[in-house]
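WARN no homologs supplied; continuing
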Amino acid sequence: MTKPSRVRTVHVGDTKVLTNQRRHGRLSDPYHMVLNLSWPRFFSGLVLVFVLVNLLFGVAYWLLPGSVANARENNFFDYFFFSIETLATVGYGNMSPASLMGHTVASVEILLGMVGVAITTGLVFVRFSKPTARILFSDHALIRDFEGGRFLMLRMANERYNRIVEASATLSFIRLEINQQGESFVKVHDLHLVRQRTPVFALTWTLMHKIDERSPLFGLDEEQLTTAHCRILVSVTGHDETVAASVYAEKGYEAKDVMFNGRFVDILKLTPDGDRVVDMTRFHHVEEMPGQSPTDGS
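OK structure emitted
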């Protein structure tokens, strides 16, 4: 018999997807699930498991009269806090196992506590040591005239101000298409970049795709981008020399995030001494081009 499915929201990058999954689908991979939790949810889950385990063992001690010395028979909290001390292998000398069953339950709890500490330490270490990139993407992607051609542009910045060496970027155009048989499907087109790799990504990087006859963006206007459910996806990979590991970042742009006939405000300036100054407060700013007003794709 097939187990019932349920609709669940899944976030793929910054995209929200509704999926039909079997009920045991997520719990079948708990390690991956825990690693993808946010830090507040991770610690909240840790506290919840800690409390539930101690409640379980506290009830076990409570149901075994005389199992804990110096514990008040009618006070469940004595057994609960004794369970906490046992799980953490921290004994204060006031309460202790007082029967064979009490020692047996305490032994099981001590073993569980040692295993739990090892697992929790490993999970925290993996979460802290997982390399991440701090790359800032511009709020809008621009389609504008530039140096005699039509270009798609978007801007990135390395927020850590260190060096990402051998960085490479890919740009994809995703839209809903209908084939000759009348079937609709999502098709991914690779957008060729003017410069796809850079030896050092330290400050800012503007990705540029020329919209010519070979480009899937050729001839598209704001309305067509919206009706075709178009999406632009950018991904960046490189080697962070600070943590000596590969890092990755991505961002998706919906049709409403694409702005026509605007240009990014210049944020790189030179001081009289020849030093470079990057004004990140203007990173997302877009200004009008001479004779044109910027418009978005909404």
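The CA atoms of residues 267 and 283 lie 7 Å apart.
OK
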